[in-house]
Description:
Helix content is 33%, strand content 27%. The protein is α/β, with parallel strands linked by helices.
Amino acid sequence: xxxxRTHRIAVRDLTLAYGQTRVLDALTLPIxxxxxxxxxxxxxxxxxxxxxxxxxxxKGTAGQVLLDDVDIAKMSGKDLALKIGLLAxxxxxxxxxxxxxxxxxxxxxxxxxxxxxxxxxxxxxxxAMAGTGVAELRTRPISSLSGGQLQRVWIALVLAQETDVIxxxxxxxxxxxxxxxxxxDLVARLNREHGRTIVLVLxxxxxxxxxxxxxxxxxxGRIAARGTPTELMSASLIxxxxxxxxxxxxxxVHGSPVCIPASRSSAPxxxxxxxxxxx
Length: 279
């Protein structure tokens, strides 16, 4: 049995359903502190649901989520917001809100009736905007921003919250490759320089393998496998989890494994072998 004391977050036998549909099925997952953990798996496998359950936006019907050995169900909403930040998929805000106004919302958990705004809040907002490169956009309405700019503003909001744990659900969704790398490099820098515990949901297996310390494959509401990208990026395991024939090669620049999908697993295996010969 895994020793939860070595992990910042421990999900234990968590079951969660939408109506009669069970999405998480007695799922157990320890998440190490100060690491980047990436959740990957087929559409509808429960990745986003798991992330929302970790932030207690969804409540399970059984099991528990522990943060530093404390059941999050017993924590106040404010205490939890001071410890775990979440950027959900496709967040929204009024288009006439300025960049700075949106980032300032990240300080809400830190404020009190006696002190609704403090110099520390202002400093945190400035650091978050500077760190994401959006300080020069502070007065711009968010409706005027490009997709990449807006995503950096949302990440700045989460950074302004100053939590040790950051959960990001598809943070590079709808971004071009340049902005994908920009956002994920920022996340990696937060982890490397500030020791933040990062939990990411990513669909792109090659980006997941490049940035993850630990890669977790989710399938049908359970953990199918977890380990380093090198351990998990195998043709057999990708075939089992994602239902595709694939060839795995090594990225000549970064040294991380790269998945080259050839065909659905129902197609002849010769298709994957042909790709292997080509590379």
